[in-house]
Automatic annotation (TrEMBL):
Domain (Alcohol dehydrogenase-like N-terminal) ranges: 23-63
InterPro entries: ADH-like_N (IPR013154), GroES-like_sf (IPR011032)
Signal peptide: none
SUPFAM superfamilies xref list: GroES-like (SSF50129)
Pfam family, one: ADH_N
Species whose genome carries this gene: Kibdelosporangium phytohabitans
Protein name stated in the entry: Alcohol dehydrogenase-like N-terminal domain-containing protein
Length: 67
């Protein structure tokens, strides 16, 4: 899959990454849209709380296999 990855302070790249594997009690979501929130924009500017490499975009809309 492709993901927006925080690779260095002030830098993000659209990269091919492995599909995540859900753990116990979790389910996979096919993402149809994703957003970047204010805290991610803040973290993008410098390395600190967010350490590269990090897939960005935790605000999503999508579907599961259950619909």
């Amino acid at each position: 899959m492709q993901a927006l990855v925080f690779t260095a302070a002030g830098r993000v790249e659209l990269l091919d990454v492995a599909d995540p594997q859900p753990g116990p009690g979790e389910t996979a979501v096919t993402v149809h849209a994703s957003g970047i929130c204010g805290s991610e924009l803040h973290g993008f500017r410098s390395v600190g709380m967010r350490v590269p490499p990090l897939v960005m975009g935790h605000e999503i809309a999508g579907t599961t296999t259950a619909g």
